[in-house]
Design a protein that fits this description.
By secondary structure, this protein is mainly alpha-helical. It contains six helices and no strands.
């Protein structure tokens, strides 16, 4: 089972700081520096033609595509394992689709079509899986997703 307190380990603590700065628009991205008139370019310093925003860095920058895929595969495998162990087929396809879409923009999963995993938010799956029928399963899935999201955000920014 995942640790009870995800933010007490060093990488998780760093992830909490990344979330705090991202939520308050204080991450030191090129777009943030440009908006403060420091004379720099607002474009991604990894060679993308996009504006370097927190969303771009965490969700669409090509530099971190392999890392996002690695975490996505892990999340998908673990979520499928949890669902199989619980012996439920109830909404399995929809939950696995949500798991596969954690780190990408997907209008069928994320409100406003944009992934916000790096802010510590999750897609809503409570409507897909009965919390009264499967409370442990729901807790395990959401705990896994949250843990992997904050760890990925810390790895990308760190």
């Amino acid at each position: 089972p995942p640790p009870a307190y995800r933010y007490t380990k060093a990488s998780s603590t760093f992830s909490a700081v990344v979330q705090l700065y991202a939520r308050s628009c204080q991450l030191d991205t090129a777009a943030t520096r440009f908006s403060r008139h420091d004379g720099s370019t607002p474009h991604c310093h990894f060679g993308c033609t996009s504006l370097e925003t927190a969303h771009h860095i965490f969700v669409s920058c090509h530099r971190f595509q392999r890392l996002r895929q690695e975490y996505s595969c892990h999340v998908l495998q673990q979520t499928d394992k949890f669902l199989s162990e619980a012996e439920t087929t109830h909404a399995k396809h929809h939950i696995l689709h949500a798991a596969a879409s954690l780190f990408v923009d997907d209008p069928s999963v994320w409100p406003q079509s944009l992934s916000h995993y790096y802010l510590g938010t999750m897609p809503a799956i409570h409507g897909l899986l009965c919390a009264r029928c499967f409370p442990l399963l729901l807790r395990n899935i959401v705990g896994l997703w949250h843990e992997q999201c904050i760890l990925l955000a810390g790895r990308i920014w760190g």
